[in-house]
Amino acid sequence: MKRIIFATGNAGKMREIKEIMADTGAEILSMKEAGIEADIVEDGTTFEENAVIKAKAVAAFTDDIVLADDSGLEVDYLNKEPGVYSARYLGEDTSYDIKNQAILDRLSGVPKEKRTARFVCAIAAAMPDGEVLVTRETIEGYIGEKPAGANGFGYDPIFYVEEYGCSTAELSEEQKNAVSHRGKALRAMKEQLNQYTG
């Protein structure tokens, strides 16, 4: 594995990815760093479908392995919203402060045991030979009463992990990578890639 291109422009996500994939020995590049511009329409109905759509779209521009993830937040009380629409929830350019507050408002007065939620991450790898590998992992938690922490991004400040008693935005990078949906999905993908290229 010489180069892996990751189909994302999200700097926070790239930091996590580079950290977790560091020991593969491959050069990890974002689409932008690889000079790839692709207009991707994510019209899948599951995280897996969207990850595959993204990986294949970027793979059309390169002979490198392309990884793409689709991840989001499922809140049980809200019928698993925002789900696959997590990034586009309340509009494409709406800030996460507004999105997080909207979810907190919708859960106002709802007791903790009914605030269960999970982060889901599906990762697809489009291989140079056309094969596509997919992994999916989750982290279970609940929606807190208020945002806390500045380490994460997206919905991290309102997503609390029972085991740590704090939000994922209050975890250190090492703690978060150890337990997060993306950390687990990336490690599972790393195993698949090692078997595939081994």
Write a brief caption for the model.
The chain has 198 residues and is of the alpha+beta class. The chain has helices spanning 11-21, 47-59, 96-106, 173-179, 181-197, and strands spanning 3-6, 27-30, 65-75, 81-82, 116-126, 132-143, 159-161, 166-167.
Structure commentary:
It is a single chain. This protein has one domain (3-197): Maf protein, CATH 3.90.950.10. The protein contains five helices and eight strands. It has helices at 11-21, 47-59, 96-106, 173-179, 181-197; strands at 3-6, 27-30, 65-75, 81-82, 116-126, 132-143, 159-161, 166-167. It is globular.
Strand-helix topology:
Layout: E1 3-6, H1 11-21, E2 27-30, H2 47-59, E3 65-75, E4 81-82, H3 96-106, E5 116-126, E6 132-143, E7 159-161, E8 166-167, H4 173-179, H5 181-197
Parallel strand pairs: 1-2, 1-3
Antiparallel strand pairs: 3-4, 3-5, 5-6, 6-7, 7-8
Helix pairs in contact: 1-5, 4-5
